Amino acid sequence: MSGLSTFKFDRETVWTRFTNSPAKWHEYLQHGTVRVPSLFEHLDPSIIETEFEMYEHHFRPPPGMNQMGWLRIMYHSLTQQAIRQDPVVYALHCAAREDRCWRFISYPYYTKSTHIDGQKTGFFHFDLNVSDLLSTGKSAHVVQSAVTLVHDESPHSCTMLVPGFHRHIREWWLRHPEAPRGGETTNIVLGKTYTKADARDFGPFIPYPCKAGEFRITRPDIPHGSTAVSHSERRVMFPWLIGIRDNHETLDIENTEKWSDLAACHRDGIACRKSTSGRSASAYGRPEGRWPATVIMGSTSCIGDALVGKRRWDDPEVVWERDLLLGDARGDGGEEARRWVETVRGKIKREFERCWKIVKRVEKEEFGEVTFFKKRDKEVGEGNAVI
How far apart are CA 295 and CA 75, in angstroms? Predict the structure, then answer.
């Protein structure tokens, strides 16, 4: 995007500053996708697991819609809020994008939650229109990321993708003039638009399981999807940091929501009217209104505020934190930035746990006899209630 050249930073320096792994940087450049371990050890996994269970307890899939493992009422959980505001998640998105974008807002999105029940979860696609990408560059820098929580994923129940496909996407596309050219995303049908010859020449879809706490970040021109059915417990959230253009209103993809729309969604705890691709969110069973037990976390950093639309990116305090995270004017190899990150994560941890107490109280008040926590208290016995 234009207008970003006034602030310079070195992508590899930022990456290694917060991962301590030059090898992971080169893996990302080669394969277009990488897993970064142990970013979220400050968040209590028992709270995360219980929060997912609470949302599952209240979820009623829209009639006629295949659930596919998506928990389509979980948009503003405390777990999602804590990760969306994480300064390292922000820094790694900045480093991963070739255009060096540093203005982002998190696009509210639902979570993945599966069990050992054989539920259908399989699909293969790009989160963009490949024809538009290759002809105009649309969505060329919108990286996708995911955080696996609580449970290690199994190779039989996880994301699938084709590492290194970004080097072959144009050749593949020219092979398949029958592939659909319209729509906001491009679906892939194995055996038709991704054949055995494609797999031989460009690589097959492979399982890409993540361990609990791992952060996966993937280029937009890497096709991905999921194993066919659910064979294990999965808890996954998607930060979806989307770039903001110079007018501080239009986003990376013009036909999606605007910055002010997303800021209002975060403020009010509601779902967006359009998906990250620009498609109407009603196609995915968008819930109306705010989920009754939503609690909005307080501020933990100025960068965190900007990532959820509470501050603009030209706010001087946001700019100061950006310079600390991404720049190197202090000449200390990023040591001050790493100390600052630990301070912010301590604030996130305390706010996460403070708000969790409120969520439990509000959920009981709002849902009465069908409350999750009263049900759990009865199951485990008085005095042994869930966290």
Answer: 12
Phi, psi of 193 (to 5 degrees): -95, 0
Predicted confidence (pLDDT) per residue in 96-121, tens digit: 999 999 999 999 999 999 998 889 99
Q: Which residues contact 84 (CB under 8 A, 6 or more apart)?
A: 106, 239, 241, 304, 307, 308
3-state helix, strand, coil in the chain (%, to 5): 40, 15, 50
Which of 287-308 are b and which e, b meaning 16 or more Cβ less than 10 Å from the residue's Cβ? beeebebbbebeebbbbbbbbb
Tokens 């930060």 belong to which residue?
A: 239
The conformation of residue 1, written as its DSSP 8-state character, comes to -
Q: Are strands 241-243 and 104-106 parallel, antiparallel or unpaired?
A: antiparallel
- Residue by residue, DSSP assigns 260-281 as HHHHHHHHHT---SB-TTSSBG
Packing angle between helix 372-380 and helix 45-58, nearest 10 degrees? 120
Reference 46, options 130, 183, 150, 200; nearest CA is 150
Task: Report how far apart, in Å, the C-alpha atoms of 189 and of each of 158, 170, 186, 198, 277 are.
Answer: 18, 17, 10, 12, 19
- Reported as type and span, the H/E element at residue 145 is strand 144-148
CA distance 23 to 108: 31
Question: Which amino acid, 106?
Answer: S
What is the enclosing helix (H) or strand (E) of 307? Answer: helix 302-307
Contacts of 247 (CB under 8 A, 6+ apart): none
C-alpha–C-alpha distance, residues 25 and 374, integer Å? 47
Alpha helices (H) along 312-371: 316-326, 335-367
Over residues 8-34, the pLDDT tens digits come to 999 999 999 999 999 999 999 999 999
User: How far, in Å, CA of 9 to CA of 91, rounded?
Assistant: 11
pLDDT in tens, 265-285: 999 999 999 988 888 888 778
Closest among 80, 283, 52, 219 to 150, alpha carbons compared: 52
